[in-house]
Amino acid sequence: FSKMTKLIVEPKTARLFRDTDTFGKMDPYVTLNCGSEKKKTKTHHSGGKNPSWTDCLNVKCTDTTLTVTVWDEDVGSDDFVGCGTIDVATVVANGGFRDWIKIYHKGKEAGEVYLEITPVSGKTKDAFYSSTMPMYAPAPAPAPAYTTPSYAAPTYATPSYTTPAYTTPTYAPTAYTTPSYAPAGYTPTYTAPASYTAYPSAPAPAAPTYYPSAPAGYYPTAPAPAPAPVGYYAAPTYTPAPAPTYPSAYPTAYPSAYPTYPGYK
Fold this sequence. Notes:
The protein is mainly β. It has one helix and eight strands, in the order ββββββαββ. A four-stranded antiparallel beta sheet has the order 4-1-8-7. A four-stranded antiparallel beta sheet has the order 3-2-5-6. The model is unreliable at 124-137 (pLDDT under 50).
């Protein structure tokens, strides 16, 4: 293309992903820069993230790149939303351009702008279309404005718990039957079943044998000790001597009080 190319640029609408306003809606507008040429659309007040414009801008391109920038108009200084570029030579070679271009902010996609660009002949101000210019569909309608949904915090009803009334359980007394015990001295009788052989009664125990007491002065002889093992010296065992037996203190028969002498009467 020549050193200076004239383009008719019509920014139609935008779909913005980045919102620079914390409260309210943005007021977007578009600027076009190509070399020393700079053009600007009108501001779509409260256009938010889906603004639209009706401007038809004549741009004299002295550079190979057309820069498209979206701004948010604010009091004081405007906020940068994002920008994108398009190659002027490609637009002229194709006889025009009608499509979306992406805009970026710090390397991240910030949205896209729909443009209609028409090259203008150097001898006339009228726009012309090349026979090779593709037929594009008309610009799509602006996307509906996106409203951030507001979510109400759910309300939770505090459950009310009623303590159940406690009833002391009643227990029916168990019928008590006084046991019947056999009277003292009662011996139960056992009858052996038919399939068993009855055992004879145990014999009566023998009467104990009692030994007479030893007479006074009697010392029983101690049993002989067991023999001492070989090589073992056992102390001698002494058997006490039997108690001596003394005659009666008085004789059993006494002589007559007076002896009888012969010849004495």
